[in-house]
Amino acid sequence: MTDRQALYEGKAKIIYTSSAEDELILHFKDDASAFDGEKVEQLARKGEVNNAFNAFVMEYLQSEGVPTHFIRRLDARESLVRRLDMIPVECVLRNRAAGSLTKRLGIEEGRVLEPPILEFFLKNDALHDPMINTSHIRTFGWASAEEVEAMRRWTVRVNTLLKALFAKADLILVDFKLEFGRYQGELYLGDEFSPDGCRLWDAHSLEKMDKDRFRRNLGGVVEAYLEVAQRLGVPL
Ligand code: 5GP
Fold first, then answer.
1. Ligand 1 pocket: which residues have CB below 6 Å?
2. For the whole model, what pTM was predicted?
3. With 80 as the cut, is the pLDDT of residue 2 above it?
4. Which residue's alpha carbon is nearest to atom 10 within ligand 1?
5. pLDDT band at 24 (very low <50, low <70, confident <90, very high)
């Protein structure tokens, strides 16, 4: 592909234009970052593992009726997706307390959250992705009331599907983040689903198998991602 242009370069991904105007190419990099880019490292093979992992999860969700932007994997590091008009809101679903929730509310890590908690964050690096509510989303026009309701419904549905999928691989889906966008008037799941944007614990040892290994300097980051992929049967 010679005529493609990088539309966006983040820490872990580059988004390129493709030959079709309504499609984009996601390029998964080996870079890992945390704490608003304060900690950045190259982790060999992370890009290809996340590309394969994301393809596996997106295809599974699609097969279960979730509308996603995913079209197909192009090669080891790249996938073709529909070009969405992204909603600047991160939808976080939590089955157990971890991360920012434990700090914000003083809840002990690992506590089962029943019913699960759904939170919204504004996607804004300069403001460090502040937590927002549906009232902010409506008043500032980031999404319509119908879109908020659809994001909520699809996030809960994705949780039901993935919690069961990961449980079969002896993994607890602790929490995850989703992003949505519009395509031809409909809401679609966008971005990526990989261990960079969710928390996964071994069901027996409760060992962390996700990006917290990187955030907390636990080592074996890509090894854990590979183990998760292998347990799920992700072709690598
Ligand atoms: P927390 O709010 O505890 O930091 O994150 C909750 C969940 O959402 C975690 O699984 C975390 O990985 C994911 N998450 C939250 N914000 C981001 C983000 O900006 N990028 C990525 N990749 N994941 C995020």
1. 90, 92, 98-101, 129, 175-177, 196-199, 211
2. 0.97
3. no
4. 198
5. very high
